[in-house]
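Example for tutorial group B:
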């Protein structure tokens, strides 16, 4: 399935929010179930209500929620109001600005903050804050002001934001040309045996769960896009490992997908199965220990620690680093203590 558009447009007093083209290998599936796996934070009742109101079109014809999708169907989901992504509202919120000049700023994003508005996240995003604090930010290719790149809602760490058209063009090219530097710190399930390595595997949308990405190999490689992650072990705790990951490319969920692919899902990564106990013992005390770790760190253990790029005006290579956030530090400390105690 290809997401063709999430632009809003008026048509018979309705506004298009999402348009999908169904993959050629899609098996018959009720359209309400299909869309649940396509649109983040949507509910089945909302999809069914949209269908009742004539808001779900397949090949330009209105369908009911029990319609079964077929390969190559063009699905359009419309509502009676414009999509919130197109109705950006400036919001006064604190931003942790690590660096700022006339061309750009570097922001340290906290956990729980969505970078840009999307379904289910219409306010409180980084963009809402940016447009309050800064006027006339340039739009990127997706019409999102200031954004050169993004990180996931529950991933913490550094982002560079462009303040001028020149900066947007120059910085975006660096990310496309793989000349920027991005290093993440991740806590993953399992003992990563190699001290360091490279994961070179194409990534694309998961064929069954559209809110996930997955690795495509061999005959299916054309379903994904090239993705390269370099990893290095920082510390081993037995059942989990602390690693550094450097991105050569920047695919959606790249680190999360690549590490799961080699058998080391991110700790407490709910979307990719890391919120379950994937390694360790069956003892009740161990389960209680892991549950406590989950409570300390109620999100995937991933932090965008280091960011480097060439300044668009001065041409100086700039590099920024930020501390691992406290929730992740506390979780790591728990595992460090557990590992030391286990070997005593």
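The residue assignment follows.
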């Amino acid at each position: 399935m290809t997401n063709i558009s999430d632009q809003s447009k008026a048509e018979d007093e309705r506004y298009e929010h999402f348009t999908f083209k169904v993959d050629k290998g899609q098996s018959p599936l009720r359209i309400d179930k299909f869309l649940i796996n396509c649109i983040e934070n949507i509910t089945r009742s909302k999809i069914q209500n949209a269908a009742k109101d004539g808001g779900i079109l397949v090949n330009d014809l209105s369908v009911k929620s029990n319609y079964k999708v077929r390969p190559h169907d063009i699905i359009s989901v419309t509502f009676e109001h414009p999509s919130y992504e197109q109705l950006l509202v400036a919001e006064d919120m604190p931003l942790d600005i690590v660096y700022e000049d006339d061309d750009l700023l570097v922001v340290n994003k906290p956990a729980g903050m969505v970078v840009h508005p999307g379904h289910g996240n219409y306010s409180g995003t980084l963009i809402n804050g940016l447009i309050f604090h800064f006027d006339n930010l340039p739009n990127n290719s997706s019409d999102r002001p200031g954004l050169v790149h993004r990180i996931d809602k529950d991933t913490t760490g550094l982002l560079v934001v462009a303040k001028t058209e020149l900066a947007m063009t120059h910085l975006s090219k660096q990310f496309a040309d793989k000349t920027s530097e991005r290093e993440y710190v991740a806590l993953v399930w399992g003992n990563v045996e190699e001290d360091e390595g490279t994961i070179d595997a194409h990534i694309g949308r998961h064929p069954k769960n559209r809110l996930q990405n997955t690795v495509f190999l061999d005959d299916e490689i054309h379903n994904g896009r090239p993705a390269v992650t370099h990893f290095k072990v920082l510390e081993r705790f037995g059942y989990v490992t602390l690693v550094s990951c450097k991105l050569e490319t920047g695919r959606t969920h790249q680190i999360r997908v690549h590490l799961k692919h080699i058998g080391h899902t991110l700790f407490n990564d709910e979307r990719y199965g890391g919120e379950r106990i994937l390694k360790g013992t069956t003892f009740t005390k161990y389960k209680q220990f892991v549950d406590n770790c989950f409570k300390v760190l109620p999100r995937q253990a991933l932090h965008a620690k280091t960011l480097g790029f060439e300044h668009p005006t001065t041409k100086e290579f700039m590099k920024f680093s930020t501390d691992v956030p406290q929730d992740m530090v506390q979780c790591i400390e728990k595992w460090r203590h557990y590992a030391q105690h286990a070997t005593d």
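The chain has seven helices and 19 strands. Compare this with the pattern of hydrophobic and polar residues in the output above.
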